[in-house]
Design goal:
Elements lengths: L4 E2 L18 E14 L2 E12 L5 E7 L5 E7 L5 E5 L2 E4 L2 E4 L2 E9 L24 E10 L2 E10 L2 E9 L5 E8 L3 E6 L8 E7 L9 E6 L6 E7 L10 E4 L4 E3 L2 E9 L5 E8 L7 E4 L10 H4 L7 E9 L2 E8 L3 E8 H9 L1
The protein binds alpha-D-mannopyranose.
Length: about 350
């Protein structure tokens, strides 16, 4: 059952609300923001996806070249070697490319609904060979020693998880790839359990295994070990093809509550919840049988890639979760959920 209260102002942000950040490009999608509070305002770290204005009969998209400069690649749409069946990905002669280049951009709001850019705060752009196809879907963990950003690094050789630390959203320390390929959807726990840091992550295995949620621990958030699988996809259900963690787990009396996404074979993305043991988060206490949120609004069903609700950021105040999410891989939306209500659905 869908128990999310969507904001009436949805979508809060669409590609037309911002100016393209890369010269000569247009914004095609705004997606999947990381969320945090900073200096009394709500901040969203948006994933902005850009590409050149498309010309008739040609598919063109940006990449970073070896010198770190944006370069546009183009393929003719009638080239028999081209596979353009997925709006997000291009297949050409055995190599995959992305149709857009993503980077991260900050917007701020006093009321959590109307967001604007603030020129004080620069965008975060892909850097180096492992980010030559861009960076995506950044989680923001608010810890007692600053903000820890976990995001997807995309390049022709890999999809993996990068870590960035910032105190002030102006200076950024990049720690490289902390989870090697194929891996994404990494959510850090915002406090230690015992004397260790923990993270949820999503490695993908092409043979045995699948696209499952794993847990890892670390003494320093840079070196991760003791990997354990905590949840797998479920045949015939809404999360049968892929699952991945959303934002940092929420600490409740009953356990760590994690809102995660699940997709089925038709790439329909819904949200569900996992409840993990407070002292041993490898232990799953409960898991949603039905989604707690599914694409039902128009803007969630139609867009760049329809039937998608994807979240990797929320704010929690007492019982209230203010969730920000990407709808149809194109616009940014907001919904409210109650911690207690989610926990109740897990008891049934
Ligand atoms: C998938 C989708 C895309 C994303 C790529 C690379 O194809 O989630 O939106 O760009 O993976 O991460």
């Amino acid at each position: 059952m869908d128990i999310a209260k969507r904001c009436e102002a949805n979508p809060l942000l669409t590609p037309r609300d911002l100016k393209p950040g890369i010269e000569g490009m247009e914004i095609t999608c705004l997606l999947n923001p990381g969320v945090f509070r900073y200096q009394g305002r709500t901040g969203l770290l948006l994933r902005v996806a850009e590409r050149p204005i498309q010309q008739e009969g040609i598919i063109s998209f940006p990449v970073y070249n070896k010198e770190g400069k944006i370069e546009v690649l183009s393929f003719s749409k009638d080239d028999p070697e081209l596979d353009a069946s997925d709006p997000r990905v291009i297949g050409y002669k055995g190599q995959n490319y992305l149709t857009t280049m993503s980077y991260l951009r900050l917007v701020f709001s006093e009321d959590g609904i109307h967001f604007k850019e603030d020129p004080q705060f620069p965008p975060i752009l892909g850097e180096g060979e492992l980010e030559s196809f861009g960076i995506e879907d950044c989680r923001v963990a608010t810890c007692n020693d600053g903000f820890y950003l976990t995001y997807t690094k995309v390049s022709p050789v890999a999809v993996g998880v990068g870590l960035i630390h910032t105190l002030d959203w102006k200076g950024f320390v990049r720690h490289g790839m902390i989870f090697p390929p194929h891996n994404k959807d990494c959510a850090l726990f915002e406090e230690k359990i015992g004397d260790k840091y923990f993270a949820l992550h999503r490695p993908s295995s092409p043979e045995l295994g699948g696209n499952y949620i794993w847990l890892a621990e670390s003494p320093d958030r840079l070196h991760w070990g003791n990997h354990q699988c905590v949840a797998i996809t479920r045949r015939g259900m809404w999360d049968s093809a892929r699952i991945g963690a959303g934002a940092s787990p929420i600490k409740t009396e009953d356990g760590w509550l994690e809102i995660y996404h699940g997709a089925d074979a038709n790439n329909r993305y819904c949200l569900g919840a996992l409840l993990l043991d407070l002292n041993n988060p490898a232990k799953v206490i409960a898991r949603s049988k039905e989604p707690i949120m599914e694409p039902i609004a128009d803007y969630e069903q139609t867009g760049f890639f329809g039937n998608v609700i994807f979240t990797n950021g929320h704010l929690v105040e007492g019982d209230r979760i203010t969730l920000y999410y990407g709808a149809s891989d194109e616009v940014i939306c907001r919904a409210e959920l109650s911690v207690r209500e989610i926990l109740n659905t897990l008891k049934k």
